[in-house]
Amino acid sequence: MFVERVNIGIFGKMNSGKSTVMNLLTQTDTSIVDKTPGTTADTKTCTMEVHGLGPTRLYDTAGADEKGTLGEKKKTKVIALMKECNLVLIVIDSSTKNLSTEHFLVETARGMDKQVFILFNVFADSKDGVSQNTNEAAATRALKKLPVLKLHKNISIDATNISDRQKLINFILENYENDSKNIELLPFLKKGAHYVLNIPMDAQTPAGRLLKPQAMTEEYITRHWAYPISFRMDLEKARGPESNLEKKRFLDFLDGFKIRPHAIITDSQAMDVMNLWTPDDIMLTTFSIVMINYLSKGRLELFVKGLEALEALKAGDKILIAEACNHSRIGEDIGTVQIPKYLKKRFPGIVIEHSFGKECIEGDYKLAIHCGGCMITQQKMNARIRDFINLKIPFTNYGLFLSYMQGKAALKKVLEPWK
Asked: Alpha helices, DSSP H only, in 112-163?
């Protein structure tokens, strides 16, 4: 019978202690341990059961810093194997001074959206007489010298000390995020119910197709034997002198249903209108919230909690507006125009920075506001979440932020479908 396993790869330089870590975890001499550089000539594999994690497969890889033609071949195989891993453990001899190989391994793993843990191998009795405390201080210096390490959980262990085995296993259990969890796009959907998709097309809406969140939502509703119905709201009229006429058109549309719609899913930028116009007997949420819950694998509560940071903002604080794609921005763009307007009006003197189509940058941010993430994978979104958490940056989402700006009642309403 096929068993789905968590693949854990152990990576690092020659003589960093990778094989010793492998033997520590397996409690056997799975890998040959020797001070001769290049002892691990090829990947060693071992399967085992880890209580609390389940069936696992461990890979002890060759050193990624070996020179020459053979070294390059080993390095190529190491990187190919990294693609198969759910979790990447990068072992660093805490006394090492050159971190170029570690930098390469971390950046490669991040490019693959892998979960990365840093293991500082603190040798209690090194050959040059360096004390354990000195090695631990060296680990601290490594974090300062290579800032990207700060984006990942780290632990210092003595891989030769059997008593550190449970310490390492506990560290993995406490921090590993199981990426096999399935999540429904609309967990509140009911078979046979009607769902209104409010799509206020503007200058940025591409001709000939719906945006990805709109298309995904329509497909999901149809596939699950329910009924999606699109409504194009004219936001300019809804916010202007013709507001009453646009509101009547919308309410007449809702009254045309023989069976009342179960929920309305709206573009986030229309929340100032939809918050007021949606009848109390119809649920309301936004495409952006739908996507962030789906892409984060149901971790919507983390983005909701991030809104608490808004209560403490003051002049001079930095806010990061992060978008996953590099689309052409014209008109009343949400990320560059609409959200900054709300922020500057509510929180005078704050500093707003943007990150487009790239990984979130390190900075002294009091809050990060992320888009729905529709152009990236679940793995990449969760990698970004890990970055925010490890950097201790509170984070929220476009749809949640724009709902929050309409008041607590509006935020409560868009969260109602998510329980």
From this structure: 132-145
Beta strand 115-121 with 87-93 is parallel
Residue 156: CB atoms within 10 Å:
18
- The DSSP-derived string for 98-146 is --HHHHHHHHHHHHTT-EEEEEEE--SS-TT---HHHHHHHHHHHHHHS
What pTM did the predictor assign?
Answer: 0.74
Q: What is the pLDDT of residues 349-370, one digit of tens each?
A: 999 999 887 665 678 999 999 9
Mean pLDDT per block of 10 residues along the chain (419 residues) reads: 76 92 86 51 84 91 85 85 91 88 94 92 56 63 87 92 94 88 91 97 73 95 98 95 97 96 97 97 97 94 98 96 71 86 96 81 88 84 86 95 96 96
Which residues have C-beta within 8 Å of that of residue 331, sequence separation ≥ 6? 202, 203, 204, 337
| Equal fold, 6-175 vs 300-404 | yes
Q: What gap in Å lies between CA 224 and CA 190, rounded to an integer?
A: 8
Helix (H), strand (E) counts: the chain: 15, 14
* Identity at 24, one-letter amino acid code: L
350 near 319, Cβ under 8 Å? yes
Is 194-290+408-418 assigned to CATH 1.20.1250.20?
A: no
CATH architecture of 300-404: 3-Layer(aba) Sandwich (3.40)
In the numeric block, the tokens 């409504």 are attached to 231
The CA distance from 394 to 385, in Å, is 10
Distance CA 341, CA 321 (A): 12
> Considering just the CA atoms, what is the radius of gyration of the chain in Å?
26
In this structure, are residues 321 and 357 in contact, taking their beta carbons and an 8 Å threshold? no
Q: What are φ and ψ of residue 264, in 5° steps?
A: -115, 130
- Over residues 113-135, the pLDDT tens digits come to 899 999 999 865 444 444 555 55
Domain 6-175 fold is Rossmann fold (3.40.50)
pLDDT (0 to 100) of residue 381: 87
In eight-state DSSP terms, residue 286 is E
- Specify whether the CB–CB gap between 81 and 10 falls below 8 A: no
Instruction: Judge whether 283 and 263 are in contact, CB under 8 Å.
Output: yes
Residue type, 231: F
